[in-house]
Amino acid sequence: MALFKKKTAGKPGEWYYCLEHKKVEEGPQCRALNRLGPYATPEEAARAIETAEARNEEWDEDSRWNDEGDREGGPGR
User: Fold this and answer.
1) How many helices, marked H, and strands, marked E, lie in the chain?
2) pLDDT tens across 11-64, in order?
3) Which of 34, 50, 64, 75 suits a disulfide with 20, CB 3.0-4.6 Å?
4) Contact predicate 73/48, CB 8 Å
5) Which residues pair with residue 24 across a beta bridge?
């Protein structure tokens, strides 16, 4: 019996895109810092980078987050 068990977040049937390994993984195989998700399907997880880029672009163009007078690139940059 192990004294220390590896704790994971998430569960099987949830899909993630691992930024370190650049691949889709089922369940939490890598550290949360290195993954995007969870997604309902492996196909959605495979498009994680495109989804994140599209959301970033939407936020960059959103006037609520890009007030004039802010530093170049909007808040948080």
Assistant:
1) 2, 3
2) 778 999 999 999 999 998 999 999 999 999 999 999 999 999 999 999 898 888
3) 34
4) no
5) 17
d(CA 57, CA 66) in angstroms, rounded, equals: 12
Q: What are phi and psi of 29, to 5 degrees?
A: -95, -30
Helix, strand, coil percentages in the chain from 3-state DSSP, rounded to 5: 30, 15, 55
Cβ neighbours of 60 (radius 10 Å): 12
Asked if residue 14 lies in contact with residue 39, where contact means CB atoms within 8 angstroms, the answer is yes
What is the C-alpha end-to-end distance of the chain, expressed in Å?
Answer: 48
